[in-house]
Design a protein that fits this description.
Order of helices and strands: HHHHHHHHHHH
CATH class: Mainly Alpha
CATH superfamily: MetI-like
Radius of gyration: 22 Å
CATH topology: MetI-like fold
Shape: globular
Number of helices: 11
CATH architecture: Orthogonal Bundle
Number of strands: 0
Structural class: mainly alpha
Length: about 280
């Protein structure tokens, strides 16, 4: 097989992986955009009931609160773990840490949701709440953020760190003056991807954080929220209700757009080169 044939075969094998997501995205836009308008996004949120809703802003707000809270909880732990890996961990500890993170990445999100339901909701009596959802989503995105932070630090030229040590800089000064200025685009890229991951999870928040209706704004972190993810899930079960299905497609468009913005922002940051 010559190079031309090999290239053609590779393109044919890759074509379904390119076409199927594009077709799904176009179909979502085709079904959802006609049902989407300003009143649906920001109209009155009063009187919402199963199968119908007069505004999506409570669901958008709940999804964003869960996403931001999860990142606030997970990002410092992830960066701290990466610093421990780079500065204090032995070779064996590094292997154990990376192995554990890769293992946690592979656990299905629904398992985290069930653990949150048993431990946080029932045993600790946090109830179905914003805080419970934040913690579970933070646990889900933590391995990805930690691995990204480790890779970001590892990509910094060894000569920079050695030069900093030779100048007598402490570890804290090296982190602040050498690592952070060089690694911030990669760290922020990973954070944006973590936000997109948290925004797209359904099963964990379904078990731990959300109700379908009756909540426009949580009274506290121990109050439940509504979210776009579970909103779509519930409405999709009302297949006989044309209005519910239309709202589900419109909600899906909003969710896809939010995730797309985060993903494209991460892609743009990935191209930044710090010298």
């Amino acid at each position: 097989m010559n190079e031309r044939h090999a290239k053609t075969l590779t393109m044919m094998l890759a074509l379904p992986a390119l076409l199927l997501p594009a077709v799904c995205l176009l179909y979502i836009l085709f079904k959802g955009i006609p049902a989407l308008d300003w009143a649906m996004l920001f109209g009155s949120a009063q009187g919402a009931s199963f199968g119908s809703v007069t505004a999506l802003w409570p669901q958008i707000t709940g999804s964003l609160l869960l996403m931001l809270g999860a990142c606030v909880l997970a990002a410092p732990v992830a960066f701290g773990g990466a610093l421990f890996y780079a500065l204090a961990a032995s070779h064996r500890q590094q292997k154990v840490l990376l192995g554990m993170m890769h293992l946690l990445v592979g656990i299905p999100p629904i398992v985290y949701g069930l653990c949150g339901l048993i431990v946080l909701v029932h045993l600790l009596h946090w109830g179905i709440s914003l805080l419970t959802g934040m913690v579970i989503l933070a646990v889900i995105i933590l391995p990805m953020l930690l691995l990204n932070s480790v890779n970001a630090i590892n990509r910094i030229a060894v000569g920079r760190t050695e030069a900093a040590h030779a100048l007598g800089l402490s570890n804290g000064e090296i982190i602040r003056r050498v690592w952070l200025p060089a690694a911030w685009p990669a760290l922020l890229t990973g954070l944006l991807l973590g936000m997109a991951r948290a925004l797209s999870e359904t099963a964990p928040v379904l078990f731990t954080a959300t109700v379908f209706s009756g909540v426009a704004w949580p009274d506290s972190v121990f109050s439940p929220v509504t979210s776009l993810q579970t909103h779509i899930f519930y409405l999709a079960q009302e297949g006989a209700n044309a209005q519910a299905v239309d709202i589900a497609w419109a909600s899906a468009v909003v969710l896809v757009l939010l995730v797309t913005v985060l993903s494209f922002s991460a892609s743009a940051l990935r191209k930044i080169r710090v010298h």
